[in-house]
Amino acid sequence: MELVYLGIVIFLFALSTFDLFVGVSNDAVNFLGSAIGSKVARFKTILIIAAVGIFVGATTSDGMMDIARHGIFHPEFFTFEELMCVFLAVVASDVILLDIFNTLGMPTSTTVSMVFELLGGSTALALVKMLHDSSLTYAGLINTDKAFTVILAIFLSVAIAFVFGMLVQWISRLIFTFHYTKHLKYTIGLFGGLSITSIAYFLLVKGFGSASFMTSDIKVWIADNTHAILISFIIGFTVLMQVLHWCKVNVFKIIVLFGTFSLAMAFAGNDLVNFIGVTLAGFSSYQDFMATPGANPATHMMGVLNEPAGTSVFFLIGAGVVMTIALMTSKKAQNVVKTSVDLSRQTAGDEMFGSSRFARRLVRSVINSNEYVVDHIPAWMRKWINSRFNQDEAIIPNGAAFDLVRASVNLVLAGLLIVVGTSLKLPLSTTYVAFMVGMGSSLADRAWGRESAVFRVTGVISVIGGWFMTAGAAFFLCFIVTLFVHFGGVVAMVLLIVVVVFMLIQNNRSYKKKMAAVQRDEIFTELAQTNDKDEAWVLLNRHISAYQSKMVKYISEAYMQTTSGLIAEDVKVLRRTLNHLEDERKNWKVIRRKELVGLRKIDPLQAVEKDTWFHLACNSCEQSLYCLKRMCEPSLEHVDNNFNPMPEEYVKEFMPIREGVERLMNVIAGMIETNNYDNALQVRQFGDEMKAQLSQLRKVQQDRIRKGDMDNLKIEYLYMSTLQETQEIIGHMRHWVRACRRFQQEKGIVTVL
Is residue 304 part of a domain? Predict the structure, then answer.
């Protein structure tokens, strides 16, 4: 039996290693978001600074391991066998949950997941023990105070971080404006001194707070001399920052890079327990069990876990190495960071979230409230405030999402709020604070314009909803897994290990396939970043040509699949085509939204001239997709119900039309892709010929319906509908190529198709 538990301990260490990878991937947004979003330095430089912070934080930390040992439950009431079931279930559940969130690109809290997994697993066994022993109570077995504290911290950190992020950024922008280099002469020294002091104090209290060299005497001395330390820091750093500014050093870059290092270090030192705490608690339990000769795993009580954790420095160094490697190599970390950066981007960009009803109503309410407040502000004050928020003067590096002022505020305020939470004994989540400060500061910076607000709000709501789902999912998943392992014994443990390994492999395969299928819109990325109107016009042309051509090709493919499925009575092809049609229609709306952003980037007079043709092309595409949907839905219903197939006579007369449509669409796709409309007249003539053929076939079909057999009316009408929709698609194609040609042509040249 000892070998079984040894195998479990080894598996716990293996899973913890993987947990370090997925945990760092998820929490990377806490300390990377501001630096990457502002492009304060090269990406590799940012990673190196954060990696050093992580390694230092992990290797100098005690890891706060006690929470995993006795913070949630009272171990003296649980046996070795029971706690090993809980620890195995917690680590397995944690890895699966975090990997799912990383794959979705959604930041979540590793602290909340671990606490609620421990609570769920220990609750499951507590209920089992209470059923067998009526003298035991839930409050006696479980430490509920910690769980309630974490729940309170969720609400507090979300609301407080957002509000303070908005207020502090609004004040900072009033002081510095978007053209902040003009207003640094008398303010940068004090701002830099306060910022570096805040980060340094955060580093002292939170980063080194749990370090092994921070003895109780040192902590008492810091507490007794806090005011003197802060005053010294403020004076010293203010002078230093002012001198550096006179030496032409960008103080904002120092603030952002130092803040990134500090947050990374604090994350590693304080959140390490979330990744290896449970495994080390299991290892300590195993050591105590093996040190007791003849001990029975079913009766050996684990009161030893009430003793303080003494984490070996080798474990800390190993964890630091793994976390550093994870940060430097994880693609999922970049995916999670992208979510946070995109939601706080200063300009409209690739809005990855759609709109929701709640977001639309909330935005409408805020707009109405804002208009009421603005109406009661004196005109001169409104004018002055608007002059401080002139985004046309924004100094944003090429490719950055926001400027260094906002990045500095994000990092400084996140550190301050976490320190305040620590002093108030509130375990504020680093993820929640960092994310919500970023959202609040972006709102204050007027980054959420009328065109993007509803998408940004939907994204924030989705992320916050994911946070609350984490707690519930962690609790119930671990609750069920613990009961399964407890009652299933060794067989269940082995089966759980196999299932976890299989799910992790499948998740990573699915993620790689997803990433391979997702084609980065490089043209739009360049378009969103450029401020040159001529370059924007060239990029917009390229973007429209590429995606309009792609949509014509897709419509051609979907048309062929729909008609093939009807003729061959292939229900799978029809169902797959109908599902893809809906996905493609949603994707087309995203593309159209991107291109509208591009239209605002070009010369306003040119945008007005091209706007009509742009929307005509978009409308032609959308109407063609609706035609396909009106063809596919009844065809699927007809075939799925096993109604009469299309007669051979109809198939023979329809096949030339079908081939002609495919040929026409391929030619049009090529014209749009190459921007070569030399054969436009021939395409128009060919389309007119096909429309004439379809009109003739429709007349023939109408005669057949009048004379036809009542038993075949369904296929008669379906065939008539197919001919009508085909004719409609050809008409839309004609409008489409005309709109694309007029949009692409040089200004002043008039061509009629």
Answer: yes
Count of beta carbons in the 10 Å neighbourhood of residue 181? 12
Distance CA 91, CA 71 (A): 16
Average pLDDT over residues 569-589: 89
Neighbours of 713 (CB within 10 A): 12
Q: Residue 419's CB: how many other CB atoms inside 10 A?
A: 21
Q: Are residues 323 and 395 in the same domain?
A: yes
Residue 149, Cβ neighbours under 10 Å: how many? 13
State how far the Cα of 552 lies from the Cα of 635, in Å rounded to an integer: 22
Which residues fall within 8 angstroms of residue 463, CB to CB, at 6 or more apart?
Answer: 106, 107, 339, 343, 435
Q: Which backbone phi and psi does 64 adopt, to 5 degrees?
A: 50, 45
Tokens (6 digits) for 719: 């065939």
For residue 618, what are its two tokens?
């978009």
Q: Do 504 and 561 fall into the same domain?
A: no
The token duo for 102 is: 């990383």
Q: Residue 656's domain is classified under what CATH number?
A: 1.20.58.220
Instruction: Kindly indicate the confidence band of residue 631, based on its pLDDT and cuts at 50, 70 and 90.
Output: very high
Which contiguous run of DSSP H or E holds residue 750?
A: none
- In this structure, are 456 and 601 located in the same domain? no
Q: How much is the mean pLDDT over the chain?
A: 82
Residue 442, both tokens: 């972006």
The C-alpha angle with vertex 24 and arms to 22 and 27, in degrees rounded to 5, equals 110
Angle at 320 between CA 43 and CA 222, to 5 degrees: 95
- 121, amino acid identity: G
Backbone dihedral angles phi then psi of residue 21, each to the nearest 5 degrees: -65, -50
Tell me how far apart the alpha carbons of residues 489 and 746 are, in angstroms, rounded to a whole number. Answer: 75
37 and 135 share one domain: yes
Q: What is d(CA 694, CA 686) in angstroms, rounded to the nearest whole number?
A: 12
Cα 152-157-159 angle, rounded to 5 deg: 100
What is the count of structural domains for the chain?
Answer: 2
Residues in a beta bridge with 142: 73
Distance CA 178, CA 387 (A): 10
Give me 392's structure tokens.
Answer: 């046309």
Provide the 10 A C-beta neighbour count for residue 389: 16
User: Residue holding tokens 């207020």?
Assistant: 167
From the list 27, 53, 30, 54, the residue with the least C-alpha distance to 110 is: 27
Q: Copy the structure tokens of residue 351.
A: 């809005």
DSSP string, 254-310: HHHHHHHHHHHHHHHHHHHIIIIIHHHHHHHHHHHHHTSTT--TTT-B-GGGGSPP-
Domain carrying residue 679: 523-744
Q: Any idea what DSSP says for residue 181? A: G
CB atoms inside a 10 Å sphere around CB 168:
19
Question: Strand pairing partners for 596?
Answer: none
**Do 146 and 505 contact (CB within 8 A), yes or no?**
no
Q: Which two structure tokens, joined as six digits, stand for 53?
A: 């912070």
Residue 672 covered by a domain: yes
Residue 418 lies in a domain: no
Where among 486, 513, 540 does a domain terminate? 513
**For range 543-568, the mean pLDDT:** 92
Model confidence, pTM: 0.69
Flag whether 431 is in a domain. no
**Confidence band for 156, pLDDT divided at 50, 70 and 90:** confident
